[in-house]
């Protein structure tokens, strides 16, 4: 192919017309909206993925069809770059541009411009691998995506129904196949083997691990968790809950990681299952977020979120680098966002370098790459650990001088295999957490007591135009609307241990308010005062002002 296959594109594009009056945007998590609205977007994303692959010399590009923790009727799509990472930021704009071309002819014009501006060599091969979660709208959207691949003559591999992290893994495994950096066998089976083999080595010789309850959010995580349980055998008994992937309306409904984190409550479906002291965790709808929790002896709920996971894991890795005699050569660092609980930031920054970045996995991931070992987690439970290429090299060539050093070194090497380094991965993170708990002989109680969470509250404010809100300092301060930050500062000063910030959401048409304070009632009050301030500041209709805003 030396020029665009215009006829093939035209013929298929006409079957996926874009309705007028809708505007699509490739945001923090790709395109995401009601599933039935996405048909034209899928077709165009199929074409774009093929072009991205050609631009990168035929490297395989991933396409994941999912709306993660969103309600079941939603769906979405995002692209994965060759190393298993999120799509390069500059291409987000190209994706948005193609998705919004109003007609087939306009689409062709946009494509021609893209090919020319980015100097895409159309004679290169196009290779893609794609998958979807369990949403009912998935199959039709996949068909539309496949039309996009077909129009471009792409070599397309269907990975079926699987989790987002497996798709990221596959992309990296395919692109490193047969090289010295091979990431593992390029199959779901290869993924399960890699994780479970490393896990078994890491917990060998430790006391029996008590059963773990997993809330699968009635999503695709249920399928993978069941396969994983088979690979793990009796090294860790998994009790799978919320596995109703075929029940309409069940996905993410009163269950899953987002429900638990947002409502700070046990999923009601687990109340008769979970025994006091027993650990449980929730995955989200595409199994890339993880939240742990337990009930204490009085039946009180305790949440162990992404910040707690980061604290647990980072301290363990630091100890291993010390025991291996590598602590002067390998520096461990943490990456958080403004949503990290103030308690966690204090605890971590007394021990390690901590960087705060804007919301969104790509920001965390890139910042974590600057450390020898970078631990990043969003408070909502999305995160992973990155080992730099130099660190991996050091681990593979280092000569330990004592048996203790050798043991610690092996643990570090096995950790690099149990951890999915391409992206946050609920099942991989779960195994990682279980390794640390087993090594530390911790139950949820000891883990929880690493530091105390400050009471906090997240509130959404619906405004006419969220783009009025602009931030700086990793989203911790507002620069626009002018003057609002000063009012906020004045308010926050009145609360002991108070902290609050306001930012426009990247995934929903709202402005988010986060507040924390030393005591619960004060955190709530501060959040609702800030929400009220924001609402009034941008001229919100007094008749529609939510009654809880102060
Ligand atoms: C407060 C919060 O949880 N925000 C989430 C949410 O982003 P917003 O930009 O806040 O809508 O979705 C993102 C994508 O899943 C995730 O990265 C982020 O952490
Ligand atoms: Mg998700």
The CATH homologous superfamily of the largest domain: Alpha-D-Glucose-1,6-Bisphosphate, subunit A, domain 3
- State the helicity in percent bands: 25-40%
Put simply, the count of helices is 18
Q: Which molecules are bound besides the chains?
A: 2-acetamido-2-deoxy-1-O-phosphono-alpha-D-glucopyranose, magnesium ion
Main sheet specs? 5 strands, mixed
> Strands of the biggest beta sheet: in what spatial order?
1-3-2-4-5
Number of domains: 4
Strand tally is: 19
Write down the CATH class of the largest domain. Alpha Beta
- C-alpha end-to-end distance: 62 Å
Multimeric organization: single chain
The CATH topology of the largest domain corresponds to Alpha-D-Glucose-1,6-Bisphosphate, Chain A, domain 3
Strand content: 15-25%
The overall average pLDDT, rounded, is 97
Q: Extract low-pLDDT stretches.
A: none
Class inferred from helices and paired strands: alpha/beta
Binding site for Mg(2+): 68, 284, 286, 288
GO molecular function: magnesium ion binding; phosphoacetylglucosamine mutase activity
Domain Alpha-D-phosphohexomutase C-terminal: 459-531
InterPro entries: A-D-PHexomutase_a/b/a-I, A-D-PHexomutase_a/b/a-I/II/III, A-D-PHexomutase_C, A-D-PHexomutase_C_sf, A-D-PHexomutase_CS, AMG1_II, AMG1_III, PAGM
């Amino acid at each position: 192919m030396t020029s665009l296959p215009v006829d093939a594109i035209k013929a298929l594009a006409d079957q996926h017309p874009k309705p007028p009056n809708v505007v699509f945007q490739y945001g923090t998590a790709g395109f995401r909206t009601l599933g039935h609205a996405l048909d034209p977007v899928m077709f165009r994303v199929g074409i774009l993925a093929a072009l991205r692959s050609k631009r990168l010399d035929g490297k395989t590009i991933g396409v994941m069809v999912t709306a993660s923790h969103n309600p079941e009727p939603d769906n979405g799509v995002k692209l994965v770059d060759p190393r298993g990472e999120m799509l390069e930021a500059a291409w987000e704009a190209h994706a948005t541009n193609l998705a919004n071309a109003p007609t087939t002819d306009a689409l062709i014009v946009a494509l021609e411009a893209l090919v020319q501006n980015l100097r895409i060599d159309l004679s290169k091969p196009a290779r893609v691998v794609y998958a979807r979660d369990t949403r009912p709208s998935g199959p039709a959207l996949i068909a539309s995506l496949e039309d996009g691949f077909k129009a471009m003559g792409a070599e397309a591999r269907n990975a079926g129904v699987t989790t987002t992290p497996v798709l990221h893994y596959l992309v990296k495994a395919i692109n490193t196949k047969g090289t010295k950096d091979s990431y593992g066998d390029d199959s779901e089976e290869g993924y399960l083997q890699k994780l479970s083999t490393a896990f078994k080595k890491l917990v060998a010789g430790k006391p029996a691990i008590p059963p773990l309850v997993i809330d699968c959010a009635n999503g695709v995580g249920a399928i993978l968790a069941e396969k994983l349980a088979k690979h793990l055998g009796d090294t860790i008994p998994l009790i799978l809950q919320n596995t109703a992937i075929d029940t309409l309306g069940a996905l993410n409904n009163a269950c899953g990681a987002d429900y638990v984190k947002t409502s700070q409550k046990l999923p009601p479906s687990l109340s008769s299952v979970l025994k006091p002291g027993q650990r449980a965790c929730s995955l989200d709808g595409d199994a890339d977020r993880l939240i742990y929790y337990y009930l204490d002896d009085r039946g009180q709920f305790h949440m162990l979120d992404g910040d707690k996971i980061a604290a647990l894991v980072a301290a363990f890795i630091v100890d291993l680098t010390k025991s291996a005699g590598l602590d002067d050569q390998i520096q461990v660092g943490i990456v958080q966002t403004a949503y990290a609980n103030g308690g966690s930031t204090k605890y971590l920054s007394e021990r390690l370098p901590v960087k705060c970045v804007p919301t969104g996995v790509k920001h965390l991931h890139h910042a974590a790459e600057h450390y020898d070992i970078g631990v990043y987690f969003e408070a909502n439970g999305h995160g992973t650990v990155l080992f730099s290429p130099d660190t991996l090299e050091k681990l593979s060539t280092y000569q330990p001088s004592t048996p203790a050093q050798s043991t610690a070194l092996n643990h570090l090497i096995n950790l690099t295999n149990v951890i999915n380094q391409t992206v946050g991965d609920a099942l991989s993170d779960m195994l990682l957490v279980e390794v640390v708990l087993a090594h530390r002989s911790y139950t949820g109680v000891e883990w929880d007591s690493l530091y105390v969470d400050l009471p906090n509250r997240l509130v959404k404010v619906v405004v006419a135009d969220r783009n009025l809100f602009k931030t700086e300092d990793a989203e911790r301060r507002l620069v626009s609307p002018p003057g609002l930050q000063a009012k906020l500062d004045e308010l926050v000063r009145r609360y002991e241990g108070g902290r609050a910030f306001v930012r426009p959401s990247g995934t929903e048409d709202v402005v988010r308010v986060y507040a924390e304070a030393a005591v619960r009632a004060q955190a709530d009050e501060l959040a609702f005062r800030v929400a009220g301030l924001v609402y009034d500041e941008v001229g919100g209709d007094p008749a529609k002002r939510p009654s809880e805003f102060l």
